[in-house]
Amino acid sequence: MTTAAITPFPPGFLWGGATAANQLEGAYDADGKGLSIQDVAPQGIEGPRTPAPTPDNLKLVGIDFYHRYEQDIALFAEMGFKVLRLSIAWSRIFPHGDDAIPNAKGLAFYDRVFDACARHGIAPLVTLSHYETPLHLAEQYNGWVSRDLIGFYERYVRVLFDRYGSKVKFWLTFNEINSVLHAPFLSGAISTPKDQLSLSDLYQAVHHELVASALATRIAHEMIPDAKVGCMILAMPIYPLTPHPADVLAAMQADHLNLMFGDVHARGCYPGYALRYFREHGITLDITDEDRECLTNTVDFVSFSYYMSVCETADPGSQRTAETNILGGKNNPTLKASEWGWQIDPAGLRIVCNQFWDRWGKPLFVVENGLGAKDRLVEVDGVRTVLDDARIAYLNDHLVALGEAITDGVQVLGYTAWGCIDLVSFTTAQMSKRYGFIYVDRNDDGTGTLERYKKKSFDWYAEVIATNGASLRREGLRTTASCLSS
Ligand code: BG6
């Protein structure tokens, strides 16, 4: 008699991978697609915008998923994916964002993608807006600062729910919605330069997105009764830099700036600390009674990305600025970091899961997590591959921490590893910052064959999925640190 392997992951746990249209599809002007804000941001969030697409913008070609999706989805199926997170490029459906009629060829593309997923038994988890708003909405309306965007977004989501409602049951409204505070253009399509943007305009944009998100949730529930809708938050636990109460308070207040987004999505209204923040920072917002009513359409689950934690301090002279994915913070002296300076903290995932579950009591979905690293293609027994032990260690340690959170009693629906196939980085727009289980032959200078190769982590993740997490190694927990720089 065999005993079932012990695993904290519940039966039916949704294992898979995550992607975003602008980072992998390419075909930026094919079949009637309009320009998106990403098509004029060749250097990621810090770089300048260009007046028009330029050949150095790797996202224009991406990894050519637009033409290779069949092969890629078959590879995901080979790993045993239950779910694939992907986004719909808004400008493929409405090329300008404010068009009256959707683009038929854009709609047909996602039908083909969802049908391919269905053939492999993979459920799509679709992000409605993942840092790829139509450029026209940025240029003509100043993005989400304008209330008009709620109407354009509503038109867009109604078309998607109508067309794909029978094929897609998991929807996310906005990727990392809290990032608009830090990346107004790429997150909120706001054309006003960040240093000239008033806090009132910024938070008005936030408010419009929150209303649009709640509206999409309501419409999805009406149009697709068995759909589950989630918000998506950039999660980054913020620890006090020291045990000094002033640092603890500073960490709490920094955390509030992020938690507000989950509070509104999960509780249906602005929390008191946010109203105080608005008051004390001279932020005046146009919030109508209809908006307040709309916000009460709360999400079914809370999804989030998790890559790192940071520290906060009340000391204005602190020099410990951390490299982060968008949000700011201070370096934690106890942690090691990736090659891009992102601090590695598996325990932070358990902490954030407990915090969110205790706070909102909604099921969670980890929809991004992974290690961005430089990979080297080598030949082993005549087969080209990448020996990505550091990535395996990172993912192993985070999944063990996630299992601990589940054992703590947190309800987690699933886990989608970020960039399950190498794609163009969001923050730096590089190809060399790779996350995938599948290597794509493309370089930062745009050269490469676009051929796909399975990395060592491909078989490793397939085994994790096949055993529902029982193959994870608790004793490997220190490997991440030993593989990476301090
Ligand atoms: C998240 C984004 O912030 O981080 C993704 O939702 C992004 O789009 C991911 O790719 C990793 O960031 P980067 O810059 O390493 O690609």
Amount of beta strand: 5-15%
Total domains: 1
- Averaged pLDDT: 95
Which percent bin holds the helix content? Answer: 25-40%
- Relevant CATH superfamily: Glycosidases
Question: What ranges have pLDDT less than 50 throughout 5 or more consecutive residues?
Answer: none
Largest sheet: 8 strands, parallel, barrel
Q: What would the CATH topology be?
A: TIM Barrel
* Terminal-residue CA separation: 47 Å
Q: What is the gyration radius calculated from CA atoms?
A: 21 Å
The coarse overall form would be globular
Would you list the SSEs in sequence order as H and E?
A: EHHEHHEHHEHHEEHHHEEHEEEHEEEHH
Alpha-beta classification? alpha/beta
CATH class: Alpha Beta
Number of strands: 14
Secondary structure tally, helices: 15
What do you see in this structure?
- The chain is α/β, with parallel strands linked by helices and 486 residues long.
- It has one domain (3-483): Glycosidases (TIM Barrel, Alpha-Beta Barrel).
- The chain has 15 helices and 14 strands.
- Helix 12 (346-360) packs parallel to helix 13 (389-407).
- The model has no long low-confidence stretch (mean pLDDT 95).
- Bound molecules: 6-O-phosphono-beta-D-glucopyranose.
- 6-O-phosphono-beta-D-glucopyranose (BG6) binds at residues 20, 23, 175-176, 234, 305, 325-326, 368, 372, 418, 425-428, 433.
